[in-house]
Amino acid sequence: MTRSGDGLTVGVDLGGTKIATSLVDANGKIVASNRRDTAAARGADRIIEDITAGLRECIAGESPPNAVGVGIAGQVDPGNGTVLHAPNLDWTNVPLRDRLADAAGLPVFVLNDVQAATFGEWKHGAGQGVSNLVTVFVGTGVGGGVVTEGALTRGCSGSAGELGHLKIEMKGRSCTCGRVGCVEAYAGGWAIGQRARELVATHPERATHLITLAGSDPITGRTVAEAFHAGDALAVELVHEVARALGVAVASVVNAFNPCLIVLGGGVIEGLPELVELIEREVQRSALPAALAGLRMTMAALGRHAGAVGAAAWARCELATQSGVR
After folding, report:
1. Residue 110 pairs with which residues in a beta bridge?
2. CB 3.0–4.6 Å: which of 12, 94, 279, 316 could bond 83 by disulfide?
């Protein structure tokens, strides 16, 4: 099916385990998509080949896209689209923008994956029509993004939105970043599983359902969510701890940026939607009254497509800016 005048762009959500590619129209609708595993061990050349193959698969039979946007789990130089560091891919200083542009024959725009998801929720998801918002995505890790006065905040070096590494305890739990006390060390999926295993080891009598659910497998954040919904006492206690940690961190963000809207997403939130209300209660207790005026909280709307849709929308907007279209 051939289309005309759609302003189609391609969005790529590039992570350590998957490459999700979508052809997206100007309204944020996915026209075509595909997903493949990331061959991280085979290096940047193979990954760029796979991105290009996914792009070509998406656009087969469609009007040629105008540009490609890539959201990558890593730090990106906002000036030249070089991936400064992507630990899940073992990349350092990879000029992704230029190399992919050469391979695809299209303009390419690169940003951090959570910034891309934030842009997607703002343009086409739960944040439409809001000029000041913050997203918090809670999955294996914790990330976020900030839109201030109708613009995505990328920061001086492109790393704005590392909300998972807000410190909520001066001498707290160890985080994967090498520091201590980060909110991710209390609320990330990996941390929830770790904390649950510790509690089960010391208080097995309070976690009978949790232990039964896990069986011979390791207890994970998903196990905790299932046990919480079954009323397991230890899981309920742990979920409330997670909500308090996230609430304290979000309250700090509310005080700092005074958003109108907080958008909560990611696998942990989707598996435990009750967290939205629990986090909101903590924010109401902890944030400054002036910063709370007019504040709303809601769940993200785009789910697993947020990164690709946001990257495509980012590419469309950046291309329009370069062309002088307002």
Report:
1. 70
2. 94
